[in-house]
Write a structure and sequence with these properties.
D-Maltodextrin-Binding Protein, domain 2; Molybdate ABC transporter substrate-binding protein; ModA/WtpA; six-stranded mixed sheet; alpha/beta; molybdenum; molybdate ion binding; about 20% strand; five-stranded mixed sheet; tungstate binding; 11 helices
Length: about 260
């Protein structure tokens, strides 16, 4: 195509676009994609937040859920994530230490609580403290937990049991799962009679019963730091990150039992 023809087409195209806009015709915007890495315990609430935002904007959000440790390790290895939400500050610290967090974007987004759940819908409520005879409750059965040395929910759970003097009594009965939702599934399906999960996970599964909540001072404060990563390359990434702190998102998070920390 000649340069003159290209210039002529360009000359005609600009007035045509202006004419369309003047008449109120919508000029379709290019949909942009957001890749979000998020702790598994966020699935129910975050799926709802993303669905609301996608319906409003027309952009696409893809969410990869796993244990925060796995996600952080994938990001450190070069996985293309735009936003990271961890269930523990330590794993966000590891990502930030490598210079992968956009400066000034890190924020503590949410808080949570730790609970003991049972598969038996008729199970009796218990007071969770040093006097809890968890070993007798388990008998020959298993206590489902996320990986106690790597996954935040498992780390919080182990810390709580150690604080209460119960860890040494049940350590040999713990069935460890890759993430907290997998631990919840063990209880939900009856493969384990009891488990330690977040309060929000228990709220998302009506097949389990919350027996009690661990004292807040028995484990480190449960916080979910969120940050925009340096892989973020378009306006949609920033827009969705901002939407995580909107009133609409607050409603979704609080409906699942999260505490919004802003």
């Amino acid at each position: 195509m000649s340069e003159r023809l290209i210039m002529r087409l360009s000359t005609f195209a600009r007035p045509a676009l202006a004419f369309a806009l003047a008449l109120g015709f919508a000029v379709p915007a290019r949909a942009e994609g957001v890749m979000l890495f998020a702790a598994a315990s966020l699935r129910t609430a975050l799926d709802a937040v993303a669905a609301d935002w996608m319906a409003e904007t027309g952009h696409q959000v893809t969410i990869s859920y796993a244990g925060s440790n796995q996600l952080a390790q994938q990001i450190l290895a070069g996985a293309p994530a735009d936003i990271f939400i961890s269930a523990a500050v330590t794993w966000m610290d590891a990502v930030e230490a490598e210079g992968l967090v956009v400066e000034g974007t890190r924020t503590d987004l949410l808080g949570n609580a730790l609970v003991l759940v049972a598969h038996d819908r008729g199970a009796t409520q218990v007071d969770i403290g040093p006097e809890l005879d968890l070993a007798s409750m388990l008998g020959e059965e298993r206590l489902a937990m996320a990986l106690v040395e790597a996954v935040p929910a498992g780390q919080y759970g182990k810390a709580a049991l150690e604080h209460l003097g119960l860890w040494g009594l049940v350590e040999g009965s713990v069935a460890q799962a890759d993430n907290v939702r997998a631990a919840l599934a063990l209880v939900s399906t009856g493969e384990a009679p009891y488990g330690i999960v977040y309060a929000t996970d228990a709220a998302a599964d009506d097949t389990v019963t919350i027996l009690g909540t661990f004292p807040a001072d028995s484990h480190p404060s449960i916080r979910y730091p969120a940050a925009l990563l340096i892989e973020a390359a378009d306006a949609a990434d920033r827009a969705f990150f901002d939407a995580l702190r909107s009133e609409a998102a607050r409603t979704r998070f609080e409906a699942q039992g999260f505490r919004v920390l802003d």
